């Protein structure tokens, strides 16, 4: 049984992806190997020999890792798309409210507003497309990197957009509570999306 644990530990170190999906995959592989060993042992084979044969039949970690990594890469791509869709539209709505309030107070809109809005809309479109495509059996090999860099770009745009709000859209003295809420939400969203995009990029590189 030790050879099985060594096997799954070696395989686990080769893989990157969503922690839950990776843990579930490793657990299923361990359970499958354990069942094979149990069947061989019941047939009269010594446990250590049964474990060696089970591992040999399943394939070496180097042989198994590519298919496992691609499955995790698709899962991470989908996860990054979900994080993007859970953060960018909400922040965009908050920014639009702030810009509207600024307009009502007679403040000129920043010239960066249309560009930032367009970037947020484009990122959301890519996230929706990735979410749909990852439901298919055949996922383009370039999609994970596209999603990773889209997520990275969106995460960088988040604090920049909030900075525009802080400096041009609203007088902080009059709307400090709204700005504080948007700033806190932006920080949390930036962290979640940037980390997910980074993992997605690492997965794509390993899968490539």
Automatic annotation (TrEMBL):
Pfam families in the cross-refs: HAAS
Ranges annotated as spanning the membrane: 81-101, 113-133, 145-170, 176-194
Record key words, sorted: Membrane, Transmembrane, Transmembrane helix
InterPro entries: Perm_prefix_1 (IPR047928)
Domain of life per record: Bacteria
Protein name per Swiss-Prot or TrEMBL: Uncharacterized protein
Source species of the chain: Saccharopolyspora rhizosphaerae
Species classification: Bacteria, Bacillati, Actinomycetota, Actinomycetes, Pseudonocardiales
């Amino acid at each position: 049984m030790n050879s099985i644990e060594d096997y799954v530990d070696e395989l686990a170190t080769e893989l990157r992806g969503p922690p839950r999906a990776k843990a579930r995959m490793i657990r299923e592989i361990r359970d499958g190997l354990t069942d094979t060993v149990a069947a061989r042992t019941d047939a009269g084979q010594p446990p250590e020999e049964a474990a060696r044969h089970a591992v040999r039949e399943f394939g070496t970690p180097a042989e198994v890792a590519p298919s496992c990594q691609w499955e995790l890469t698709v899962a991470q791509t989908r996860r990054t798309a979900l994080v993007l869709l859970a953060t960018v539209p909400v922040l965009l709505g908050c920014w639009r409210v702030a810009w509207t309030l600024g307009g009502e107070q007679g403040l000129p809109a920043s010239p960066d507003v249309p560009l930032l809005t367009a970037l947020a809309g484009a990122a959301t479109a890519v996230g929706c497309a990735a979410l749909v495509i990852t439901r298919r059996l055949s996922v383009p090999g370039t999609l994970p990197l596209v999603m990773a860099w889209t997520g990275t770009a969106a995460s960088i745009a988040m604090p920049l957009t909030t900075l525009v709000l802080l400096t041009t859209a609203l007088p902080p003295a009059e709307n400090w509570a709204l700005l504080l809420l948007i700033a806190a939400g932006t920080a949390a969203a930036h962290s979640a999306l940037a980390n997910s995009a980074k993992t997605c990029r690492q997965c794509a590189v390993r899968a490539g």
